[in-house]
Input
Amino acid sequence: MNRRTFLQAVAATAAFGAARPNISLAADAKPALLGGKPVHTGGWVSWPQWRPEWEAKIMEVYRSRKWFRLSGPNVPEFEEAWAKMIGAKKALACASGTTSLIIGLNVMDVDAGDEVITSPYTFIATYNAILNRKALPVFADTNPETLTMCPKSLESRITERTKAIMPVHIYGMPCDMDAINPIAKKHKLAVVEDACQAWLAEYKGRKCGTLGDVGGFSFQESKHIPSGEGGVVTSMSEELIDKCNSYHNCGRACGTNKGTGSFTRGDNYRMTQFQAALLLQQFDKLKKETAIRQGNADHLRANLGKIPGIKPVRLPENSKPSWHLCAFLYDAEQFNGLSRNNFLKALSAEGVPCSSPYREQYYDGLLDEAINSRGYKRLWPAERLKAYRDSFQELKGNKQACETMFAFGQNMLLADRKDLDQIGEAIRKIQKHSAELAKA
Ligand SMILES: Cc1ncc(COP(=O)(O)O)c(C=O)c1O
Output
């Protein structure tokens, strides 16, 4: 570059920078991983959060000595408010997201020796909830563009033992329920939504957790509306929620689920009054922050989508994710072969925390342990368990998803636009220096 072209480039950068601050200049700077200054300093919103004004309610529960689900008003109040907020007929609060799924599978009559088709691309608790019923989690493939269950792969997984489908609205991105529900209906299968990351997420005008027979949510500490631990089951059927209530309360009769008058089989998955009181304080916060995350995710997706090699995950038409994580797909070829994992390291060094949460975890041992157990060997013929294990190799879309995705946490979507734009600056900087970084 001669002096004239250099000055032209600087002038162009200055003009561009006036509208979009220092993007080219920041990209020219040395990557933090190679000793330069990070693009972003000052951290991000910490999580979970608390408010002084919530304390009075928590102390009221404390002093009331009514801490147990059946002795105070907060749990039923929470259930009513949650059902109303998401447009469900009824809701049943419980101990965790995992237990919400176990309860849901139980009331949809998933029993030992049954098969449940689910998504491999999920938190391991989805697998565990199915295993808890002594059922087999059979995997539909993942669409590597959407990270959710590929409906086209569903029917080939159905056997005479299949009892339910468990779609997972991963990161709060709704599954393509208009394709999944008719398959379930055709084969008389129950639909249990894993909505554990999908608080207030919407699909074609309806909220997740109201799109199948039952849905389960998590309120664990990292979640958008946390109570340390906690969960809720939702349904458009009052009868099903009454059954959920019985199951989670040691099998006691409830509402329409009178049983024989004595106990039905059950467990203790009850929520405490403290959890419900804490959750009730956070409804307005959840609604406001969901709108902020949605606006900021749109902005970030538009910005990062302009960078060659970075693709926003595709969403179903007319859907509004909750954005537990904001996920993108990475193409190393556009970054001089810089591996996805080294890209993540370089980005984290720029003060932009990011991750690639789920591996091909069906190879991690949990499922081998299950299918080699005494119980599973009793419940399935050896050929079925072998074919099941072999079928993991067919999950090509899931493998691709695990290898190419990366994501930013929900807390980063609560940042100011200025901070959010630094994510793009950091990626552009890494791209510019990617050949150097790939060799480092
Ligand atoms: C997709 C998914 N399913 C199930 C769960 C289980 O929820 P919990 O941790 O509340 O048991 C989680 C929680 O992280 C989750 O993200």
Observations:
- The CA atoms of residues 325 and 409 lie 5 Å apart.
